[in-house]
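Please go through the protein record below and see whether the fold suits the sequence. Record follows.
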Amino acid sequence: MFLFEVLCAVAVILIALYFIMIMPRMFCKPSREPHVKVLYAHRGLHDNNSEAPENSMAAFKKAVDAGYGIECDVQLSKDGVPVIFHDFTLERVARNEDGTPAKGKVIDYTYEELLQFRLLNSNERIPKFEDFLKLVDGKIPLIIELKIELKDLSVCPKVDNLLRDYKGVYCIESFNPLGLIWYKRHNPGIMRGQLSDEFHKEKPEEFNTFLYFSLTYLFLNVLAKPDFIAYNHKYPYNLSLWLCRHLYKNLTAAWTIKSEEELDRAKRNFDIYIFDSFIPADGPNL
């Protein structure tokens, strides 16, 4: 009987600890209204086989002209300039003038050196984050993903300095909870989101550590205190995600929706929608 009581007590403590670990920000939250039911064009309204590839100024202009929000990715060049590019490595998207894939990482090149590369088969170049903000000029809402490799948080103050003078609606997100913790400490009034996925299902051979288990089940919310969870739209019933939305009333964002059918399903389980590869039938407003 004593052993049973001990096991019950341990179970209660573990369950309580779990609810504490996944708890998002509960108080002093920024306004969520500008972001709810918004459709965000993933890396701009892009087509990688066109003159408007992902994270290009042409793709961003198309999204602004169509009235969609934009989700984009920011990291630093070698000389500390915030630029918009998704991968840490250049090879997938950046091209030399002869059409061969560029080598190395974004951080290996100064901004002026990055300008030598074209984006895929277009004449577009890797944009400065500052120029992107001037283009958007507050016309549509933004989700800005901070690309943070390991523990290098130098992108955070650089991006924050530019955004403090920006007059439009925006929020930040990152897969790396350290970026959210930085914003929690230095600019807590900004809406912040934890990006996540069921990593063990997507790439089990690569993401099989306890860190990715913790990210999958949002255990690091206890430190980052996000205002929204941006999650792979294929897994709306992840227990921690479900509890954040239904118990803690946290916003959830679906990424990356690639068809009208996927958008219809996401509307039942998410509040914010990040899409690419199609044009939503109802346009930018839900």
Observations:
- The chain has a mean pLDDT of 95.
